[in-house]
Amino acid sequence: MTTTSAPHTALLGGRRPLAAQIGVYGFVVVPFLALVVAVPLAWGWGLSCVDVGLAVGWYTVTCLGATVGFHRYFTHGSFKARRGLRIGLAIAGSLAVQGPILHWVADHRRHHAFSDKEGDPHSPWLFGTSPGAIARGFWHAHLGWILDRDLTNQHRFAPDLLADPAIRRVHRQFGLWTLVTLVAPAATGGLITWSWWGAVTALFWAGLVRVTLLHHVTWSVNSVCHLVGERPFAARDRSANVWALALLSMGESWHNLHHADPTCARHGVRPGQVDVSARLIWIFEKLGWAYDVRWPTAERLSRISHA
User: Fold this and answer.
1) Mean per-residue pLDDT for 81-92?
2) Do residues 29 and 170 lie in contact, with contact meaning Cβ atoms separated by under 8 Å?
3) How many domains does the chain have?
4) Is the residue at 303 inside a domain?
5) Is 260 exposed, middle or buried (0-12, 13-18, 19+ CB in 10 A)?
6) Is the predicted pLDDT of residue 267 greater than 80, yes or no?
7) Which stretches are transmembrane (predicted)?
8) Which residues of 41-79 are buried (b: 16+ CB within 10 A; e: fewer)?
9) What are phi and psi of 14, to 5 degrees?
10) pLDDT digit string (tens) for 101-147?
């Protein structure tokens, strides 16, 4: 379906403005270059315990903002949230620098609607099954699709969020939250060490390197978790579980269960499958901030299990 269709049914919803497109390239390339530089820096100088602590802390908060907030809550409605938590999750997810919330949610709902078929924005199987086609598909699923200027139609895929003025406000403030996610670690590092150099190294490690690491972990769920791994549950696509990414992705790489049961609040449902995101949702529920959580049940799992 083309963009000439009715505005509420079209697959695409316009193109990213040139300034925003340049920003996308910037936030793909600059943090990646920081990661390349990080190897010699870590080997000889420029990395402190403060930098490590800030990087781990900011990685955890922003990753969970994306996984619990943007993904399990806003995209799939795995639980309901009190108003304060709703806004907090929208801001925390924005700090991950993976795009404004309306774009993120619309893209991901479209991914599920057309998973591994034409219309999926980031399937690695769109070009065929030959070695060359798979290599091309991997690049597309991991990073190439992000550089495409076409935008998913928010009216079709995210009308509920468009109807919320607070969420639209957080969406418009994406530039502000991007600035915060870089400046706040730098300011904290500078204050802790009481030095400009402490601010610089914190910006580098807890800002740029942390952002690019989280980017590639998230993109690996799109690419790697649709190419290789175990498929114990019946999904209508090639989603798979990749245990090696489980901790860094906060449980998102238990991807086969997620595609078999997208609204389930826990993705790692078998013994030993660590799912930090699900544990945080459990904490929110105990605190009374989240409710109507869609936890997995034996009956629910039996319906989708191959075993």
Assistant:
1) 98
2) no
3) 1
4) no
5) buried
6) yes
7) 22-43, 55-75, 87-105, 125-147, 174-197
8) beeeebbbebbebbbeebbeebbbbbbbbbbbbbbbebb
9) 115, -170
10) 999 999 999 999 999 999 999 999 999 888 888 889 989 999 888 88
Residue 29 lies in a domain: yes
| DSSP string of 68-108, one letter each residue | IIIIIIIIT--SEE-HHHHHHHHHHHHTT-S--HHHHHHHH
Residue 114: its H or E element: none
List all residues 6 or more positions away from 183 whose beta carbon is below 8 Å from its beta carbon: 203
DSSP-assigned beta bridge partners for residue 254 = 241
Does residue 177 contact residue 92 with C-beta atoms inside 8 Å?
Answer: no
> What is the domain extent for residue 191?
12-229
Within a domain: residue 43? yes
| Measured distance CA(61)–CA(55) in Å, rounded | 10
Residue type at 97?
Answer: V
Cβ neighbours of residue 257 under 8 Å, at least 6 residues apart?
Answer: 232, 233, 241, 264, 267, 268, 269, 304
Q: Which tokens sit at 64?
A: 């969970």
Please state the rounded mean pLDDT for residues 237-263.
Answer: 95
Q: Beta-strand (E) ranges in 83-212?
A: 150-152
Separation of alpha carbons 273 and 120, rounded Å: 27
Place of tokens 């389930």: 264
Helix (H) or strand (E) holding 290: strand 290-291
Residue 38: alpha-carbon gap to chain centroid: 23
Map tokens 């906060």 to a residue: 250
Number of H helices, E strands in the chain: 14, 4
